[in-house]
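=== How it folds ===
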Amino acid sequence: MADDIWERAQRLPPAERQAFMSWAMQEITRRRVMKALPTAGALAAEFDPKNNQTADLAMIDEALEWAFNTPDARLMISKPSQTGKSERVAVWGMVRALIRNPDCRIIIATHSEDLALTHSERIRSILAAHGTGARDSQTGVLLPDRLGIGLGAKNAASRWTLAGHIGGVVAVGVGTALPGKPADLLLLDDLYAGMEQADSPAYRRRVNLWWDTVASQRPGPGAPVIAIGTRWNEYDAHAYLMEKHPGKWRVLNFPAIAEKGLDDALGREPGVFLENPRGYTDWEAIRETKPARVWASMYQGDPGPSDGALFSATWFDDHRVDVAPPLYRRIVGIDPAETGTGDEAGIIAGGLDETGRVVLTDDASGHLSSAQWPRTACLLALRTAASEVYFEAYSAPKTYEGLLQRAYDDLVAEAVRLTAELPEAERAALAAAGIAGVVEGVRVPFVRPFAIYPWKGHGNAVVRSTGFRHGTSSGKCRVVGHRLATMERQAVRWFEGQHSPDRVSAGTVVFDVLAPSTPAVVTSDPGSWGTIASGLA
C-alpha cells in the first residue's frame, strides 16, 4: 500500500508532487516525534536546556496524557507559584496536544489577556524555532523540521493556526466573548490575578458568569477541560467548577510541604518538601514570612475561608513563637476517638510560660483506633515531660481512663522486652534510674510519671472553646512554629453549627486546664510544676 502511494506520487505533476512530498515528510516527522517524545515533559527535555524534571511534573505529564486520551476529561492542578506548572501545562502540554492532533483547536483563558498572550507567544516561538519551516535567526537558513508541525501564514499572538490544519491557539482573558470559536481543548490558567480578586464576591460572580455563559459553551463533544492555578479560597473558580460538575474532576494538588490531613498527589510523608524544578527552595523559610492564609492558599493548595470562621489565621500568626520557651507546667489534652475504628483523635501538648501564657507545643493527633490513641497520648506525655493527661469525659470516662492506664502498663511491658536485648550493664543502668526501657526513642519509667484526669467543659463545643478562641486572639495562647499546622487549618475552617474539629477540642482542653489567672514562676526543670503561683495552690 505504501509503495503504491509513492508510485502514484511520482506520476503527479511536479508542483503537486512537491506539495505531496512536503506534506508526507512533515507527517512522518510528526508521527516519529509523537512516538519518540511521548509526553510534554519529554518535549521539554528535548528542546529546553533549562528543563528539570521532578516527580510532580512527571505526574502532571501522565495526567495530561490521560486528559488527551479520555473523552470529556476534567483535570485540575494546583501547586506553588513559580514551580513550573504553567510552563509544563500551558506551554509544553499544548505543544504536545498539537503534535498529537494538528487539528486540535485550543482556547487558553487566563485572568488577563496579557498572560494568555504570553503563553501563546511561547508556544509560537517553539514552533518557529523547531517546527516545519523553522529558520536560523541569524542566517535565515532553513532548519531541519523537528516537530512535524509549523505555523500558518496568519499567526497573530491572540489567535493563530498551524499550516495546513485547522488546529491552533486562541488566547483570551476572562470576560472575552468567543463567538464562533469552538474548542477541542480548553485550558483555564489562574482566573484571578490575586487574592483580592478571588475574595471579591462581585469579581467571583463575574468569573462564574463568564464560565456559565461563554467558556463552558466552547468545548465540543469529548473535549477535555484543564484548569490550573492557585486555590485562593473555598469559593474560588476551582471550587465553583467542582460544584457545577461534581465527581468529574481529577484533582492533583502538590503542597510545598506535605502535611497530615492535606491532599498530596505524591503521597509524601508529612514534612517532606516539594522539589522545585528551578532549584532548591527552603519552603519553611518562606512559610515564616507569609500570613497563614496566604501560605495555605498559594503554597499548600488548601484555601481557607476569608471570614466567618470561629478562629482567624491572623490570631495564630500574630502570636506565634519560633521555639518553645521554658515551661513550668506541661500537660496533654485528648479528644478521644469515639468509635474505636480509626476516626480522628485529638492529642495536643502544651504548657505555661513564665508570663502565664499557654503555649501549645506538639500535635500527635490522627486517625487512631481505641488501642492506638491511648498509646500515642502516653508516648507524647513522656516525650514532653507532661505531669498530667486530661481527656474529654462526656462519655465512658471510666473506660477512657482504663484505656490510658492499660496503655501505659503495656508500654512498660514492651520496654522491658526490648531492654532484655541490651547488654547487662545498660539494663542495670536503666533499672537504677527507674527506667523500664526505651520505646520509640522515649524512656519509659516503671512508675507512670503523669496523672490521668477526666475533663468536662460547660455548654456546647462553641461555648467550651470561648476561652481558647479568646486566648489565641489576645496572645494568651500561642503555638510553637508550625508544629500544629493541621490544627490551625482545621480551626480556621470551623464554623458555628459544624462539628468541632478533634484537634481543636483537644487544644480547648489544654487551654482550659492551663489558663491561669495569675503569672507563673518558671523553673529550669521542664518536667516539674516549679513554684506554683499564688492562687493556684
